[in-house]
From TrEMBL:
The lineage of its organism: Bacteria, Bacillati, Bacillota, Bacilli, Bacillales. This is UvrB/UvrC protein. It comes from the Bacteria. PANTHER family: PROTEIN-ARGININE KINASE ACTIVATOR PROTEIN.
Length: 142
């Protein structure tokens, strides 16, 4: 069977082409396969000019447009880095206790209260004092 692309050489391989190229599957000769592969690797991002080959080699993209332009490659890298997942499953900092968080909030509010009293902003000081009472009440129930 002849190559469906050039029609000159004997076809040796069945290739499923990317959707942006003609047809979905063709039977091609080895020369046409190499030409298509080279053209595919040299496809460049319209914004930054980074090629598909560079993205795959460096394992990083050049700009925000690369994420959509090289979507398949980026998704593949993410799946590889995230052990098969496309959503980030990284580590999180240890959660602090509710008691500690409320104690820190109470300290900040007391500092704010002192500053408002020193600046004679008694209306704001009264609001902060109410917040302090609420946090102290929450601390009693922890």
């Amino acid at each position: 069977m002849r190559c469906q692309r050039c029609g000159e050489r004997e076809a040796v391989v069945r290739v499923k082409l990317p959707q942006d190229q003609e047809g979905t599957e063709q039977i091609l000769c080895s020369v046409c396969v190499k030409e298509l592969a080279k053209a595919y690797q040299e496809t460049a991002c319209p914004s930054c000019g980074m090629t598909r080959q560079q993205v795959l080699h460096v394992r990083k993209v050049g700009c925000a447009t690369c994420y959509s332009f090289f979507k398949e490659e980026v998704d593949g890298m993410i799946r590889q880095f995230q052990h098969g997942h496309t959503k980030h499953y990284g580590s999180r900092p240890e959660e602090e206790s509710v008691e500690r968080r409320l104690s820190q909030q109470l300290s900040r509010l007391k500092e704010q209260l002192n500053r408002k009293i020193l600046s004679e902003d008694y209306e704001e000081a009264e609001l902060i004092k109410q917040q302090i009472l609420n946090v102290e009440e929450d601390l009693r129930h922890v």
